[in-house]
Specification:
The protein is α+β, with helices and mostly antiparallel strands. The chain binds 4-amino-1,4-dioxobutan-2-aminium adenosine-5'-monophosphate and magnesium ion (MG).
Length: 468
């Protein structure tokens, strides 16, 4: 009995004039009373396969059912195609419709081939249907390829994948942008003697939240396994109504014992370059589609990143450049204030015209765990800035000295009693170490050329959005 073959395999096949079975969703059907052309996609590739049906062999009734969005099984002969742009096609002997799709109500009726019809904005309102479009098929396949490439890179370089908790009692970034996790009732929660909500009666016996970063637990693992990484969902309840922020996003966080800031930059640069190279090598069809459809510079930009070194400079040097820039900024630049995305993009897109790594930021604008520089004013932080994106990576060498770390925590009002386990890494066999976090969706934005982060994750979470 004949087994199905994927569209990807059929299109690459050189073994012609044989009987095949294919299954997928109809993108379009056109033709006349003699011949019908049905293009079918099964998700295995951006390309559709053309099914040719002798209209006289099929009843009008059965052809009518084959509408955009319907699912079909086609048995027929794989033959060389006369049509341009395709090497093979299938001459249908039998077409079975598994599930009809009413053209009057199918939300993607106008978007059979992605050439026209619905904007990305409109598609966001029907996010549950987006994977059926060419654009989201391409984005999701690239997203998959990048996850795979991340694991492959680390595995090949001797890193261990550690699973850090999603529910945690600590705030890794000390920024307070957390989603509370609780089993206590909203109405009449138990109160303690002081009249406050009594978290001792909560599931974990204390307030907990969804993790904002796996770094602190990653550091514990690095102090034992040497080279580790986490790759998981992270959650931030910041007002993330921008094209670069999500409330739920995925972060890749390597952490390496005995690495300093220089090693950390070298790792970040090599890592990013090899991921982009992987995309160019393994996602060529999807990238070509996105390049042609949305952004004619996409492929050039990706190649540029693989072929050129990043520019490295300190925050202080960057501030000097920004102060003498001819461009007018909305936010003033002053040593000590955080850079806005307009400043980051000026450096990357206008001044250096290449990816930039900024280091040694003022300690006041960075997290408590970063290693203090000798000047006592700056820390060994690094942000990697990318064209069109701004910050794609944030990382640092960590403060390994217990006394200095504890002082920073007091200065920044980070409760030591919540992080006693973290401080144990500095009490017992402390060592220099460094790591960073790559925002996975920001990487996907860069690689796909999409401009809104809500278009590179299947189910975006942002304020007032949890429909699914
Ligand atoms: O710079 P961030 O906040 O650094 C950390 O969380 C560190 N603990 C990482 C580490 O050193 N292990 O976040 C890291 C990256 C950012 O550079 C950005 O790419 C991404 O995570 N990111 C977000 N992506 C989407 N939506 C958001 N709301 C994001 N916030 C940060
Ligand atoms: Mg950051």
């Amino acid at each position: 009995d004949l087994r199905k073959t994927s569209v990807q395999e059929l299109l690459r096949s050189t073994d012609l004039d044989r009987e095949v079975l294919l299954k997928g969703w109809v993108r379009t059907r056109r033709g006349n009373k003699y011949v019908q052309f049905i293009s079918v996609n099964d998700g295995s590739t951006i390309h559709n396969i053309q099914v040719v049906a002798d209209a006289e062999k099929f009843s009008d009734e059965s052809l009518k059912e084959i509408t955009t969005g319907s699912s079909v099984a086609v048995r027929g002969k794989l033959v060389a195609s006369q049509g341009k742009g395709q090497a093979v096609e299938v001459q249908a002997a039998e077409i079975e419709v598994y599930g009809a799709s009413d053209p009057e109500t199918y939300p993607l009726q106008k978007r059979g081939s992605d050439q026209k019809g619905i904007s990305l904005e409109e598609l966001r309102k029907i996010a549950h249907m987006r994977p059926r479009t060419n654009t989201f098929g391409a984005v999701l396949r690239i997203r998959h390829a990048m996850s795979f490439a991340i694991h492959q890179y680390f595995n090949a370089n001797g890193y261990f994948y550690v699973h850090t908790p999603i529910i945690t009692g600590s705030d890794a970034e000390g920024a307070g942008q957390m989603f509370r996790v609780t089993t206590l009732p909203d109405v009449n929660p138990p109160l303690n003697d002081a009249g406050h909500v009594d978290y001792k009666q909560d599931f974990f016996g204390k307030p907990t939240n969804l993790t904002v970063s796996g770094q602190l637990e990653g550091e514990l693992a690095a102090m034992a396994l040497g080279k580790v990484y986490t790759f998981g969902p992270t959650f931030r309840a910041e007002n993330s109504n921008t094209a670069r922020h999500l409330a739920e996003f995925w972060m890749v966080e390597p952490e390496v014992a005995f690495n300093d800031l220089q090693d950390n930059m070298d790792l970040a640069e090599d890592f990013l370059r090899s991921l982009v190279r992987y995309a160019l090598e393994h996602c060529a069809d999807d990238l070509q589609f996105l390049n042609d459809q949305y952004d004619k510079e996409l492929l050039n930009r990706l190649k540029f990143v693989t072929d050129n070194e990043f520019q490295r400079l300190t925050y202080t040097e960057a501030v000097e450049i920004l102060k003498t820039a001819r461009q007018k900024f909305e936010f003033p630049v002053d040593w000590g204030t955080d850079l806005q995305s307009e400043h980051e993009r000026y450096l990357v897109e206008k001044h250096f015209k290449k990816p930039v790594i900024l280091t040694n930021y003022p300690k006041e604008i960075k997290a408590f765990y970063m290693k203090l520089d000798d000047d006592g004013r700056t820390v060994r932080a690094m942000d990697v800035l990318f064209p069109g994106i701004g910050e794609i990576i944030g990382g640092s060498q960590r403060e390994e000295d217990l006394q200095k770390l504890s002082t920073r925590m007091q200065e920044m009002h980070v409760p030591e009693e919540d992080l006693w386990w973290y401080l144990d890494t500095r009490r017992f066999g402390t060592a220099p170490h460094a790591g960073f976090g790559l925002g996975f969706e920001r990487l996907i934005l860069f690689v796909t050329g999409m401009t809104n982060i809500r278009d590179v994750i299947p189910f975006p979470r942002f304020p007032k959005s949890a429909e699914f």
